[in-house]
Each structure stands twice: as C-alpha cells, then as structure tokens.
Amino acid sequence: MIQYVLVTFLTALTTWALSWAVYKIALKYKLYPEIRDRDVHTRPTPRLGGVAMFLGVIAAAIYASINPFLSQTFSDAPGQLIAVLGAAALIVVVGVLDDLIDLDWMIKLAAQFVAAGVIAFSGVQLYSLPIGGITVGSSQMSFVLTTFTLVLIMNAVNFIDGLDGLVAGVGLIANGAFFIYGYLLVRSMGQTSFFNLPLLLSAILVGICAGFLFLNWHPARMFMGDAGALLIGLLMATSAVAITGQIDPSALGVGQGTASVGRTQLIGAFIPIILPVAILVVPLLDFVLAVFRRTVAGTSPFTADRKHLHHRLLDMGHSHLQAVLVFYAWTAVISASCLIAFVVTPSWIAVVFLVVGVIICLLWTFAPRLNRWRARSIAVREARAAGETVVPEPFRAPRRPKAPAETPSDAPTPDLPAAKDTPA
C-alpha cells in the first residue's frame, strides 16, 4: 500500500509542476482556441492540460520501472503496459489536435478505436464475466467486446467534461474507490500478476487527477481538453477491464461458504462487475442521454450541444461550483455503497447507506426548484390572505443569460485574477 501511495503522491506533484509549465507555454504562444457557443467560460483559456497529465503518467511509469516493488508490473506484463502508454499517447495527440483545430468527429472516433484495439490486442481483455464463471466466448468476441467497452467509457468521461474541475474530481473519487477495491482483492486473494497493472494505473490516475485539479478548480486557469478527458477515460476503462475480465468468483469463496469479501454469493459474484459500472454511472448516464437525444433529433451522436447534465444543473439554478459538487456527491455515494457492500456484514447496511445517500443527493440536485416552489407557495398564500386574486403561472426554470458574442482576444495573464465563468 505504501508504495502505491508514494507513486500517487509523486505523480500528483509531477503533474502539478508540469501543468504550470504547460500553462505558461500556452499563454506565451497563445495556444488556446476560440470560445464556442456551448462553453461556460467567457475568456480564452488553454486546453492543454491533457499534455501535462500524460507527461505525469510517463513520469510515474519511469519511477515504477526503477522501484523494486512496482517494477513487477513491467516483468509480469511488459507488453500490456507499453500498449497502454502507446494508446494513451495516440489519444493525447488526437485530443490536442482537436482542441486546437477542431477535428472531425469521425477522425477522433477512429483514433479511439485504434487505441482501444492496441490495448485489447496486448491481452487486456474481458475474457470472462465474474458471474458464475461465464466466459465471453471466442477470442475474437473478447477482442471486440473489450474494444467497444474502452471506447464507450472514453466517450462517457469526455462527455461530462464541461465544468471546471468536474472530470478531474470525479476521476479522483472514482479511481480512489476502485483502487481500494482492487487492493482489498489483493489482500483477500493473494498477490497475483494481473492485479499489478490495474492497481498501478488506478494509483497513477488518482495522482494525475489530484495534481491537475489545482489548476482546474473553479475558476480554472487551464482545461484538460479532450486529450485529458479521453486519457482519464482510457486508463479508467483499462484498469476496470484488467480486473473485471479475469476474476474467478471461486477464488473469492463464492458458492463455497468461505467468502472473505463479498459476504454473500450474490454480492461476491456481482460486485466485480457492478463497481466498475457504478463508479462510471454519472458519465455513462450522460452519454446515453446525449446519444438518445441527438439520435432522436436526427443528428450525429457526437454532435456537440449544450444539454448535458452539467448544463441542466446550471440552467436549474445551481452555481458553477454547486453543479460540480453535485456530481462529486453522486459519484461518492454510489462508489462508497459498492465498497461497503463488498466488505461489510450484513449487506443491508450498504443498501441503507445507498438509499439515504440517494435521497440526500436528490434533494441537493433539485434544491433550486424546491426553493422556487416553496417561495412561490408562500407568495400565493400571502396574496390570498391579503384578498388578492392569484392566477397560477406554469413553472418554467429561468434561462441563464448567454455569454457576449465578442470576447477579449488575449488570454488572462498570470498576474491578473482568473476570469470567472459565466454560462454560455
């Protein structure tokens, strides 16, 4: 555990330093795109945070290679780790080009499939589902299923990247939970080779998210861009597949009455596949809604719009920071519920925690509407008490004003206070 915590700390520190360096270079050479209609910021801001995050991953991999404990990852699965780094490099290059010159969505999608295919070809695949030992089928089916899973998660994470600190914070919480889950499996099942890669990737992910969050917290000095969001999605998906697709439920004692984690057969069999989905439930929900919405409208599923969940929270009346914290809360509640179900007896404790957490999150999510409804009800009662005639009006959420059509041509300098974001 200490070694993984150390690599997380060093990765965070390196990413933080590299983020400042990339930020200064981006300002000096004006490497930032024009503001789009769907953006919520009003002044040009560099989008090269993904470059710093990728360099942080490389630095962490170099440190791991010379660390006697972490170097097991290189000896156990050298081809897999190299494939992951190569795929990440491709994703970052394409993401940076898209952030600077706005690539066609088909080019980006093709690059994502190539990157996912490289990882699947290296051996990181969904060979089986941890539900009664169900096998995926042929090697070709495993390759296809893994590739599509990686691409799906990459896009799901990228879709929620619309507010300062949103993806970095969600990634920090989700990967922290996933690392704890993987570490508990190691303690329960014994050290096995296929755990080294996902644990190392999870530790690195927590580090790059924490390090970049310092510059990405609202109001953000720099965005991670598509390069950073796709990088986080790729590494999250890879670590999840590396564990989920290779777990044998019998190793957990499931069905044998000896389960030390996952105290019941149901929990023990399903938690390895529930947790990876659970920590990504918010990005996946946004992705599914976006694809459905755009398909019904007759447009491409990858056509950008301003109807994502974080945009709806802003339109509902949440401030920028409140909308981000709502996402954090949902991710934390769902991830923590799965971990509690995994290690605590009896299992109903996790259910109670989940129900209470969901109720609190729902009240927080819809608090602006509830407050407006209460204020309107009070106003109606007071008017009626005064003998006034009240004509009920249909409820409409207030629309947030659009940003000015013209924006300053120069980015904020480091000496000036960071620009405050206003909705697009």
UniProtKB/TrEMBL annotation:
Transmembrane stretches in the record are 6-27, 48-66, 78-97, 109-129, 141-159, 166-185, 197-215, 227-247, 267-292, 321-342, 348-367
Report one GO cellular component.
plasma membrane
Tell me where in or outside the cell this protein is found: Cell membrane
Instruction: Show the segment(s) annotated as Disordered.
Output: 385-424
List residues binding Mg(2+). 158, 226
Question: Is this entry keyworded Membrane?
Answer: yes
Membrane among the record's keywords?
yes
State the UniProt keywords alphabetically.
Cell membrane, Magnesium, Membrane, Metal-binding, Transferase, Transmembrane, Transmembrane helix
Annotated membrane topology: Multi-pass membrane protein
MF terms from GO for this chain are: metal ion binding; phosphotransferase activity, for other substituted phosphate groups
Name one process (GO BP) from the record.
Answer: cell wall macromolecule biosynthetic process
Record-given protein name: Undecaprenyl/decaprenyl-phosphate alpha-N-acetylglucosaminyl 1-phosphate transferase
User: What species is this protein from?
Assistant: Mycetocola tolaasinivorans
